[in-house]
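Quick one:
INPUT:
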């Protein structure tokens, strides 16, 4: 911004005003190979500036020969030039087999990038709004504590990390206290059932007041430890919503009222009392607290990954956007679930995703209102049955309600869901990947095709130059520098190879423009007004490259250098003349091979983006020893789309599945999401079966009589259901 308020784009030759802008730039140097005289170009462009944003309106370009009149209205003085007419190969390969390659260092399309960011931000905003509406469960309430924190600040990040650490310690302490109380109450209820004697003070028939006071004190202490959860559960009722905390809160309050009533009856009338269910309630609360502790530890570990400084890589799933349509067409299937990776500087919305409730909890939250109604109905039936049999209407009713409420606490769902996710997150973090909660599982659990760049398959050191041959008089260093200028500008796995050949000396790398990848042939571009071709034998033949010392027959000699699978020959031509030949060896690391094998064993296909024509299905099959039917190479249309969304690092991306950039980490994250999604369905089925059987069992017996079911029976039922849930845990682990 200048002192007088004018703004500029790039150099000061592009001047902006508030409404409309016209600017002129000098003509770029015209390559000699075009066969035309040096030209002057006048570019008339219009940019519109509004509210601090720049939008493109129109751009007209006309080209005139040097020495012509300055009157651009004379049509006879203007010359339109098409470089394609001067390249005989273009008539063979056609435009549909050529694509422009993003220069990963210089060429940034600001307008396309702006539209891309707008699309991403809108989709993320819409997604977050939808999740905030449908996921107002326990996890959403926990996420609210940190949603306002901008953890890009090191101070804020450290504060959140400290709070998570303190919460973990408190939950561990609470879990220990609850465990002691729960163990004591369970022993009081179970030991007499197996004929083991207890002191009279612990027996309800011999010392009912002492027994009830002990039960009430233990339950009150459990309620004190879980006070925040009880308050949160009661607030849900006021909002006409239910969650696991709601059921626990209602169950604890109902049982405390039940014990107080029995204590009053025992003190005033010395009458018989019904069974107390404090022990199974404490067991359910202990399992819930254990689940909360695992969740907090998982969130804290993932947060440590998120706040690490440096560029990360976030997986993105192709959904209903235009990107998805093009990639699906490229994959050959309209029903493909395609995922790919984008570089990103900041992972946003971490806590919203990390604390999101699983589908089992969301499903149960919808069923809880009906469960509470069923519990009240069970209590009324039990009360009527007790009154008709000569018992106490209120005592039998409260006993039936409390017993059925205990059966409504989803202990199997809590274990089936959080433990597998906790272990999966811990394992993947050790590999360098963050699987952020059940939103990540939902997003990537259906992935059947993974789009990869060749740099993922062949990182630095995987490709080696075994031999370099100069064909004409050009020194090998100049040949290498010319090829490196084009290859490095286009990116890909060969860029690292040529960087190492030049020993990372950037002074040897020229400015390359008009970089184009010709499908199954290679890369072409202009460097210092020289046309550079880097590709395979077919590229040399298609472009009718001059081959010194024997013509096309000499190419057979170069091809004979390939001695074994993984060897490929790379040709370099300058100004349509072959100058150098490189023998390359492609090798696969064991980590990447194992990652691909594991992906394919799970039924995931691999779709590869490449700017190296030597990398084809056959090479990948030979190097990685995987079936060719699982591999495909992105065509030009798909490559353009893939390149447009992955070539530049995004400022921020939703924290779902993030990695450190290695294929091992990405493969592990995808596989874990697929496995957890399968396990989630199994866990939901187990939870529904256990819930239905347990509720029918407890409600049926409690409806018969207040003495038909006791706490020991419910504890045994809970333990059996926990053991059943191990089916899901073992499968997931």
């Amino acid at each position: 911004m200048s002192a007088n308020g004018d703004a500029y784009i790039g150099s000061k030759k592009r001047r902006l005003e508030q409404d409309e802008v016209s600017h002129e730039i000098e003509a770029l140097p015209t390559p000699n190979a075009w066969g035309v005289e040096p030209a002057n170009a006048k570019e008339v462009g219009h940019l519109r500036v509004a509210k601090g944003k720049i939008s493109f309106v129109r751009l007209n370009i006309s080209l005139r020969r040097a020495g012509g009149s300055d009157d651009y209205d004379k049509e006879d003085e203007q010359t339109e030039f098409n470089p394609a007419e001067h390249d005989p190969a273009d008539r063979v390969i056609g435009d549909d087999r050529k694509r422009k390659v993003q220069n990963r260092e210089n060429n940034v399309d600001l307008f396309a990038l702006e539209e891309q960011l707008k699309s991403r931000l809108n989709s993320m905003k819409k997604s977050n709004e939808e999740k905030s509406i449908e996921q107002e469960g326990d996890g959403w309430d926990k996420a609210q504590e940190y949603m306002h924190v901008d953890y890009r600040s090191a101070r804020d990040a450290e504060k959140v990390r400290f709070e998570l650490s303190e919460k973990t310690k408190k939950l561990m302490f609470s879990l220990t206290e609850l465990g002691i109380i729960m163990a004591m109450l369970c022993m009081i209820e179970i030991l007499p059932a197996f004929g083991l004697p207890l002191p009279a003070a612990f027996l309800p028939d011999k010392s009912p007041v002492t027994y009830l006071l002990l039960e009430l004190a233990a339950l009150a202490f459990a309620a004190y430890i879980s006070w925040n959860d009880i308050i949160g559960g009661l607030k849900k009722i006021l909002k006409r919503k239910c969650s696991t905390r709601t059921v626990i809160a209602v169950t604890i309050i109902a049982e405390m009222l039940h014990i107080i009533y029995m204590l009053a009856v025992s003190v005033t009338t010395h009458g018989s009392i019904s069974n107390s269910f404090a022990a199974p309630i404490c067991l359910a609360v202990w399992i819930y607290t254990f689940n909360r502790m695992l969740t907090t530890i998982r969130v804290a570990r993932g947060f440590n990954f998120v706040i690490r400084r440096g560029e990360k890589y976030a997986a993105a799933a192709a959904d209903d956007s235009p990107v998805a349509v093009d990639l699906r067409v490229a994959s050959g299937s309209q029903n493909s679930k395609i995922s790919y990776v984008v570089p990103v500087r900041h992972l946003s919305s971490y806590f919203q995703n990390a604390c999101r409730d699983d589908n089992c909890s969301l499903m149960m939250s919808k069923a809880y209102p009906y469960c509470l109604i069923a519990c009240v109905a069970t209590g009324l039936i039990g009360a009527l049955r007790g009154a008709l049999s000569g018992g106490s209407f209120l005592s039998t009713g409260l006993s039936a309600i409390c017993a059925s409420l205990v059966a409504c606490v989803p202990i199997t769902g809590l274990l089936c869901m959080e433990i597998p996710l906790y272990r999966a997150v811990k394992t993947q973090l050790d590999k360098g990947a963050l699987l952020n909660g059940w939103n990540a599982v939902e997003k990537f659990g259906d992935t059947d095709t993974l789009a990869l760049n060749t740099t993922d398959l062949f990182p630095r050191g995987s490709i080696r130059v075994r031999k370099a041959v100069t064909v004409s008089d050009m020194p090998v260093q100049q040949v290498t520098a010319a090829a490196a200028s084009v290859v490095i500008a286009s990116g890909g796995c060969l860029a690292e190879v040529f960087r190492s050949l030049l020993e990372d000396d950037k002074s040897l790398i020229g400015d390359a423009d008009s970089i184009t990848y010709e499908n199954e042939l290679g890369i072409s571009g202009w460097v210092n007004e020289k046309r550079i071709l880097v590709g395979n034998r077919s590229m040399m033949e298609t472009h009718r490259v001059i081959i010194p010392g024997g013509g096309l027959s000499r190419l057979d000699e170069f091809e004979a250098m390939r001695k074994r699978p993984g060897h490929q020959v790379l040709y370099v031509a300058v100004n349509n003349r072959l100058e150098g030949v490189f023998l390359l060896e492609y090798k696969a690391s064991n980590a990447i091979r194992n990652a691909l094998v594991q992906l394919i064993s799970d039924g995931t296909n691999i779709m590869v983006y490449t700017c190296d024509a030597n990398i084809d299905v056959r090479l990948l099959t030979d190097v990685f020893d995987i079936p060719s039917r699982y591999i495909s190479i992105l065509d030009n249309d798909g490559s353009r789309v893939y390149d447009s969304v992955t070539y530049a690092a995004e400022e921020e991306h939703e924290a779902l599945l993030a990695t450190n950039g290695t294929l091992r980490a990405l493969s592990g994250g995808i596989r874990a999401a697929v496995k957890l999604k399968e396990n989630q369905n199994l866990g939901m089925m187990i939870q529904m079966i256990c819930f239905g059987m347990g509720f029918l069992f407890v409600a049926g017996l409690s409806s018969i009589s207040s003495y038909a079911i006791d706490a020991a029976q419910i504890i045994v039922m809970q333990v059996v259901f926990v053991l059943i849930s191990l089916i899901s845990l073992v499968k997931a682990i």
